[in-house]
Design a protein that fits this description.
The protein is built from nine helices and two strands. The protein has about 190 residues and is an all-alpha fold. It has one domain. α5 packs across α8. It is globular. About 35% of the residues are buried.
């Protein structure tokens, strides 16, 4: 009974459109079921070089500014150089696959990104905000808000088919770490 009551209280604290459902890589919470935050998604894509030339390295350079080398060194030390290289390759695939799916589904991206894709601090704050569940940051919620929960699920299946489940799990883990590092660097709280 106590567990049920705590679950109900936790669910009541979740943000709008965030439901307490199991996720693949973030445990029992959370799934975002609302409309995607496409202006933020477009800002992220533009910060990474745009839809035709997206590069995770370019995105991370925008987000971290002069701390790019230090962040990559930290991630390499924490996860290993090969795992970080796979993360970068997987992230590039995630964006390209998401754009392919969005195009197939005739989902129009907004004409104006928000925040300004050249403002790494503002973009980091927007992405951090997109990952808020009511229980803190959750990478699954951020990815759901970026493209929608159904497209996020399809992209994960596509990652698994191309690189394997382990690469998918590692992508989520390293992205969570990178986002937490950005939150620390920019003193972000939600």
């Amino acid at each position: 009974m106590k567990t049920l009551i705590l679950s109900v209280i936790a669910a009541a604290m979740l943000m709008p459109s965030v439901v307490n459902e199991p996720t693949r890589f973030s445990g029992s919470c959370c799934v975002y079921t609302g409309a995607p935050a496409l202006p933020v998604t477009l800002s992220m894509i533009e910060a990474g070089g745009g839809p035709k030339d997206f590069s995770t390295v370019t995105l991370l350079t925008t987000l971290t500014g002069p701390q790019f080398s230090a962040e990559v060194a930290k991630l390499n030390n924490q996860y290993g150089k090969d795992q970080v290289a796979q993360f970068l390759k997987t992230f590039d695939f995630v964006v390209n696959d998401s754009l392919r799916i969005v195009t197939e589904k005739n989902i129009a991206l907004p004409s104006t990104p928000s925040p300004n894709p050249k403002d790494g601090a503002a973009l980091a704050k927007a992405l951090w905000g997109a990952g808020q569940s009511g229980e803190g940051f959750n990478v699954e919620v951020m990815l759901d808000r970026a493209v929608s929960h159904p497209i996020h699920l399809q992209v994960m299946k596509d990652i698994d088919a191309k690189y394997g489940l382990a690469a998918d799990a590692q992508y989520h883990a390293i992205l969570t770490t990178a986002m937490n590092d950005l939150a620390g660097a920019y003193k972000l709280q939600m």
